[in-house]
Amino acid sequence: MLSACLEYLGLGFCVAGSLLGMVACGLPMWKVTAFIESNILVAQTIWDGLWMSCVVQSTGQMQCKTHDSVLALTQDLQTARALTVISAVLGAAGLTVTIAGAQCTNCLTTESVKAKVVNAGGVIYIISGLFALAPLCWMANRIIVDFYDPAVPPSMKREIGASIYIGWAATALLLLGGTLLCCSCPENVRGAYSIKYAPTKSITSNGEFDKKHYV
C-alpha cells in the first residue's frame, strides 16, 4: 500500500512538473524590463522569451513577434531552447514508461519487472529535471551578471521573469517525483530477494565445536 502511494504521488509530481516545464518553455517571460534609474517611467514593458519577444504598452495592448532566425539568437537562448525541448520529450517518455510499469496497469505481469520499469521511469524524470534546470540557472546567471554590469546601459538591463520561477518549480517537482518513483518498490518484490545465512556451528556432547566446520 505504501509503495502504491509513493508511486501515485511521484507520478503526480512528475506530470505536474512536466506540464509546468512546458508552460515555462512557451511563455515569453524569461527576461523582463528592469525599472531602474531613469528607466522607471516608461510607457512599455519588454518581455523576452525563448520563442518570441513581446512589448506590453501601458494601455494594456501587447504586441508579440517570434524570433526570425535561430542562428541569430544568442548562445544561451539556443541552448535553452534545445535543453527545454529535450526535457519535455524526456517527460513524455518517462510518463509512458512509468504507466507501463505502474501497479494499476496490466501492461506487465511480473511484479519485479514492473518495479524496475517504474524505477527506470523515475530515473528518466530526474534526467528531465536536470535538463530543465541547466538552462534556467544559466539564463538567471546571465541576467544577474548583466544587471550588475556597469557597461550595460539601464535600458538594456533585464530582470528574472516569471517563466524562470515557474521552471524552477517544475524542476523541483520533477526531481522530487522521480526520487519517489525510484523509492517505490512493492513489499513482495523486496521479499523476493532472499538472504542466505551461514550455517551455525554445532556443539558436540563434550562442549567443543564440531571439527567438520574447520578446514
Helix/strand order: HEEEEHHEHH
* Largest sheet data: 5 strands, antiparallel
Morphology call: elongated
Sequence stretches where pLDDT stays below 50 over 5 or more residues: 190-197
Proportion of β residues?
Answer: 5-15%
Distance between the termini: 48 Å
Radius of gyration in whole Å, from Cα?
A: 27 Å
Order of the strands making up the biggest sheet:
4-3-2-1-5
Q: Helix count, per DSSP?
A: 5
Q: What is the average of the pLDDT values?
A: 82
Structural class comes to alpha+beta
- Level of helix content? 40-55%
| Quantity of strands, as a count | 5
List the helices and strands and how they pair.
Blueprint: H1 2-26, E1 31-33, E2 44-48, E3 52-57, E4 62-66, H2 75-101, H3 111-147, E5 158-160, H4 162-183, H5 187-190
Helix pairs in contact: 1-2, 1-3, 1-4, 2-3, 3-4
Describe this structure in words.
Strands 4-3-2-1-5 form a 5-stranded antiparallel β-sheet. About 4% of the residues have low confidence. The longest helix is centred in the middle third of the chain and has 37 residues. α1 packs antiparallel against α2 and α1 packs antiparallel against α4. It is α+β, with helices and mostly antiparallel strands. The two termini are 48 Å apart. A hairpin with a 4-residue loop joins β3 and β4.
Short description:
The protein has 215 residues and is of the alpha+beta class. 53% of the residues lie in helices and 10% in strands.
